[in-house]
Specification:
Layout (H helix, E strand, L loop, with lengths): L3 E9 L5 H11 L3 E13 L2 E4 L5 H14 L4 E4 L5 H17 L5 E4 L17 H8 L5 E2 L3 H8 L6 H13 L4 E4 L10 E8 L2 E8 L9 H14 L4 H17 L25 E2 L5 H5 L23 E6 L2 H9 L4 E4 L6 H18 L2 E5 L2 H7 L3 E4 L1 H6 L2 H7 L2 E6 L2 H8 L5 E4 L16 H11 L5 E4 L4 H8 L5 E4 L1 H4 L4 H12 L4
Parallel strand pairs: 1-2, 1-4, 4-5, 5-6, 6-7, 11-12, 11-18, 12-13, 13-14, 14-15, 15-16, 16-17, 17-18
Antiparallel strand pairs: 2-3, 7-8, 8-9, 9-10
The structure holds ligand LCLJCK34, 4-methyl-5-hydroxyethylthiazole phosphate (TZP) and magnesium ion.
The ligand Cc1ncc(COP(=O)(O)OP(=O)(O)O)c(N)n1 binds next to strand 11, strand 14, strand 15 and strand 17.
């Protein structure tokens, strides 16, 4: 990805929406925004006075200039004023798909109605959008009005949202993200929905009470485009776009007599601005009548770890290795056994618990939460998939600590629903211990996670060795978990001593 995003959209003379909002939002996520202007709208905070569509010749000249020199990783499309514009853009997108070495992703925000209620497009565009454009779109981001306009589905409740999204997919849009800012369901809340690769994602938060929301739709789609350019998965882009808008709404101020623009602030840094991932068992899920495919017990607020700084964290696959690491003074450890009969696992967990007591250390059991409860382990470590199958109420009632793995912003917020004892982020670097394809986080994201989760003990895992331990520790993470850096070291005792020294806070 080359960090170049195009926005094909209308100019808003009031500076709050359209091209102006897009560039500011893209800038907030450190990508370079190029522009193809489709209309010079004359508008202010009170409404739209004129649309002034640009001719297809002038639009094409802008496209050609960019095609030759500044190809985009992602193209964000906003207001298209008429059928000719829709056809022209569709033809060019087809050409890019067929000829560019790296075809661009297309995010389409079907701008039809301004926040003032004014129609921003000629009325006969809907069939051209469906026939020409939607088959070329990777992510469509309509609000609820635009969803109704495009699909004819009246959005009386969550299942109508799902039906409308399927319709849009059937017309060719690969993923659908419906923005709920104009929807008051349940009352006082803002619910957003995403259908992507067969998975559904629902986000919600209390409505932020401000009249100054002009440009939220354009900005949200631009942040999605920016995050996709940076290689974020769509579910993480969805989270960040929501948090960005919430942060902007809280800071929004009036500039004219009417509706002010959403504020264009930087990367969202306050957890309070992030939406809730809506999951079965939560109050919002009940309001939305969610039906869970699994028998699921929700529990939140697990026993705190003894310390916020868990230090060097050895993840081992046998009781032998556990004892070797304990003998070297490691205080946070995990027994991660992927094989073994029921008896073998039972005996291993029992032995791990005994050894933890002997060495006055904290041992977590990976996956086998029933055995961990049975033998009175200090804690259990679960992955995102494991959460559905585990009895979280039983784990909480046992008083054990719960650590949860996360791979990105969406999973981090999902884990936050449970208020676990610690959160782990991975894989920070590529690793051969486990297939983490598409889930490498890197240091930049790790820093973001740590800054957001100040109240949690945090753990970084994946591909960390002695040469990387210092830079990982410098992010402020409270613990570094390793497998091979110990198990494959030529001299594991020296490796442990070196790792401990590398991550120790300076005196
Ligand atoms: C400290 C720590 N972080 C992450 C993991 C990964 O756990 P999980 O997602 O459950 O995957 P498996 O380890 O079961 O393959 C971990 N084990 N420890
Ligand atoms: C279990 C796990 N979860 C995320 S990365 C990882 C493996 C870490 O192993 P290593 O320290 O050898 O890279
Ligand atoms: Mg696991």
């Amino acid at each position: 990805m080359n960090n170049v995003v195009w926005t094909i959209a209308g100019s808003d003379s009031g500076g709050g929406a359209g091209i102006q909002a897009d560039i500011k939002a893209m800038q907030s996520f450190a990508v370079h925004g190029c522009t193809v202007i489709t209309a010079l709208t004359a508008q202010n905070s009170l409404g739209v006075e004129a649309l002034n569509p640009i001719s297809t010749e002038v639009i094409e000249s802008q496209l050609l200039a960019l095609e030759h020199d500044m190809k985009a990783s992602v193209i964000k499309i906003g207001m298209l004023a008429n059928v000719q514009q829709i056809q022209l853009i569709s033809e060019h997108l087809k050409h890019y798909r067929a000829t560019w070495p790296q075809p661009p992703l297309v995010v389409y925000d079907p701008v039809a109605i301004a926040s003032s209620g004014d129609l921003l497009t000629e009325e006969d565009t809907v069939s051209a959008i469906k026939e020409c454009l939607l088959p070329l779109v990777d992510v469509i981001t309509p609000n609820t009005h635009e969803t109704q306009l495009l699909t004819g589905v009246y959005l009386i409740g969550p299942s109508a949202l799902q039906d409308a999204a399927v319709k849009l997919q059937n017309w060719g849009a690969k993923s659908v993200l419906i923005k709920g800012g104009h929807w008051d369901y349940p009352s006082g809340y803002c619910i957003d929905y995403c259908l992507h690769q067969g998975e559904e994602y629902w986000l919600g938060n209390e409505k932020i009470q401000t009249p100054h929301s002009h440009g939220t739709g354009c900005s949200m789609a631009s942040v999605i485009a920016a995050c996709l350019t940076k290689g974020y998965p769509l579910k993480d882009a969805f989270i960040l776009a929501k948090a960005y808008i919430n942060q902007g709404l809280k800071a929004a101020v009036r500039y004219g007599e009417g509706i002010g623009p959403v504020a264009q602030t930087g990367f969202p840094t306050n957890l309070a601005d992030y939406p809730q991932v809506i999951e079965a068992g939560s109050w919002l899920a009940d309001e939305l009548d969610f039906v869970s495919a699994h028998e699921f017990t929700m529990a939140a607020g697990f026993t705190a770890c003894d310390s916020k700084q868990l230090g060097l964290y050895a993840v081992v696959d046998s009781v032998d290795w556990l004892e070797k690491c304990l003998a070297e003074g490691i205080k946070t450890l995990q027994l991660r056994m992927k094989d073994g009969s029921e008896d073998e696992l039972d005996q291993a967990v029992a032995a791990a618990v005994m050894l933890a007591k002997k060495y006055d250390a904290q041992v977590y059991i990976n996956d086998h939460w029933q055995l961990a409860i049975k033998h009175g382990a200090y804690g259990v470590h679960l992955g995102q998939q494991d959460l559905l199958a585990a009895n979280l109420v039983a784990i909480k009632e046992s008083g054990m600590r719960l650590g949860i793995s996360t791979h990105g912003f969406y999973e981090m917020l999902r884990a936050h629903n449970y208020r676990p004892s610690y959160m782990a982020f991975g894989a920070i670097y590529p690793t051969t211990t486990k297939d983490m394809t598409g889930q490498i986080q890197g240091l930049e994201k790790l820093k973001r996670f740590i800054a957001l989760l100040q109240d949690y003990p945090t753990v970084a895992i994946g591909g960390i060795d002695l040469s990387r331990a210092k830079e990982v520790a410098a992010t402020g993470v409270g613990s570094i978990a390793v497998v091979r850096a110990i198990s494959e070291a030529e001299d594991y005792q020296q490796a442990i001593a070196d790792l401990q020294a590398a991550i120790a806070p300076p005196l």
